Amino acid sequence: MYARGLRRRKAMFGEADVEQRMAAAGEFGAPLQNIINAYVYGDVWERSGLSGDIRSLVMLGITAASGKPAEFRVHAKGALANGCTKEQVQDVLLLVAMYCGVPAAIETNRIAAEIFGEASASDPAA
């Protein structure tokens, strides 16, 4: 499962990003990285019930609704790799705004606009 998960993770986020995250975790965080590779990406992401793009959209909703902008950024990049469209991401964030409150969607809207190339990270209008 570990090798399969590592392949999927690198396909979604890029080899350099995954290697950097694993290295940054250090010796202390290595067991967690191993679990992420084996079980998150090697097992749950490999299940056949949902396609990769749908899983990505679910992750965007979860990370936006739970106030995890750093993880939202990671998964927004993965969503692009999994074929999600700008319109799909916009719709997810509108659902988050309606069901979890507008503040939950504001920062993630900025991040999504940046990732889709519509605004820079320093653009206050994003």
TrEMBL record:
InterPro entries linked: 4CMD/NDH-1_regulator, AhpD-like, CMD-like
- Any one GO molecular function term: peroxiredoxin activity
- SUPFAM superfamilies noted in UniProt: AhpD-like (SSF69118)
Name the Gene3D superfamilies for this protein. AhpD-like
| Domain Carboxymuconolactone decarboxylase-like, residue spans | 32-113
Q: What Pfam families does its record include?
A: CMD
> Would you tell me the protein name for this molecule?
4-carboxymuconolactone decarboxylase
Please name the source species.
Bradyrhizobium lablabi
